[in-house]
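Re: your question about DUF4270 family protein

S., sorry for the slow reply, the queue was backed up all week. Below is exactly what I fed in.
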Amino acid sequence: MNWPASASRLTSVSLFAVSLLGLATSCEKANDVGLELPGTSPITSQYLDLTVSTATVRQQPIETVNSNQVLVGRLRDAKVGTTTAQAYLNLQYNSLLSPADSLPAATARLDSVVFSLGFDQVYGTANQPLRFNLAALQQPLDNRTVYNSASAAPATTPLLSNLAAPLNRELKVWQQLASNTADKKDSVQVTTLDKVVRLRLLKYPATAALANTTFATLQSSPMSQEKLNAAWKGIALSPAAGFADNIVAFNRSYNSRIVFYFSGNNVKGTAGIKGKSGRYHSYSLVAGPLPTEAPTTGPKYFTQLSTDFSGTALASLATAGQQVSATATEDLTYIQDGVGLATRIELSGLQALMNNSELAVNRAELLLPIKQNTNGLFPYPGGNSVYLYEVNASNQPLERTVGATTYERLIQIERPVQGSQSLATGVGSPAAAALYPSYEALQYYSMPLTEYLQAYLQDRLNGERPSALLLSPVLRTNPNLTLNRAQLVNLSQPDAAKIKLRVYYSKLR
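Result:
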């Protein structure tokens, strides 16, 4: 049997003296910024831009186990360096996807074995094939072991080396029409990209022996996961030596499998296609990420990621705990998933804002402009996948304990309605920056910080004040692994677009 085909308003906070207004300020009508300030007399709202000090740092390791994608390949990038991705996959005997009555009988004949993985993203060029090696794991991945981007699993020497997997292959499929056309056709043939990498294992002696051993195991009765682990412990995929053209993201798909095609009249199942020598059948083992709607959980897998920063302005990030100032990277800082790049933001002037009484804050937001036209190689991280950590001087996230559980401290979402309990010092609801298109200037991220700034200035953070904030697309509880990247602008000119904390305020007197 085959698988399926494939701003809320706060109580006014007194902050700072009029003497601070020498910093960059502007004036807007309150209604224009949606503040809905109390009172009947005309009120204006001004804003103050506080400059920040920025640097690029690296978060390691990244969580990659059982993520939505598994990455394979190597890619050289002049800005960051060379990133290498290797994948480690358990195999799974899954009776929900391939029922036991479809297993081959002892008299069945093996005709073909195909290992396939579906992909949805290519970093680098898709005009060049992915060149990779295939090895077997020496032991299956352990369910009790924590794996991440810095982990490795022992594997054999490559069974196959420098295999070429085309990434731009096309195929023709029949597409159903919404309604009958004038010539009475109900479907039409269209050309689409074939986003599946396939490897025929019987074509090569080293993998043919492994495939035949596994097929013999499938013919034994009763079949079990323990028997499969003894025959074939898992797969390791790594980029070929000297290859650096692309990294492929294999996504959740029913194409994540090894399919055994066999024939013969005497098979356990009854389904099949009639041929000259009997009926043709197939049986599938899981090998990679299954769709989220699959009726069962797939096997364990993870991606190992490493980046060689040598020869770039970020070379010192190879040493743990280091950071690179924006002044050393052409007034840019980086955020990138997978590689673990993040931007350290030190807010200036906050100490001077405390315990003053002449102005009141209405809204605060962190503005983070992106350098234009820098998403050709790596897409920008989406606006729902960029977060702010509170970190110490060594760029380690601060922690907060709730009950018996310890959480990393992230900026939380603003309270949704007036009068509800503040989430500024909570856990479990991290705020995500919004990505805004800009038709007159740069695209930018915006992160609301009104409640957090109030808690910071009034020393109500429920813990120590952070040394800095860390902007990052990495979230430990998010299983979505990418290499998406943004270069943030940190220009030194006072009137240029750059990272800043914008605070809207009203005069009290």
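Residues 131 and 164 are 5 Å apart (CA to CA). The mean pLDDT is 85.

Happy to talk it through on Thursday.
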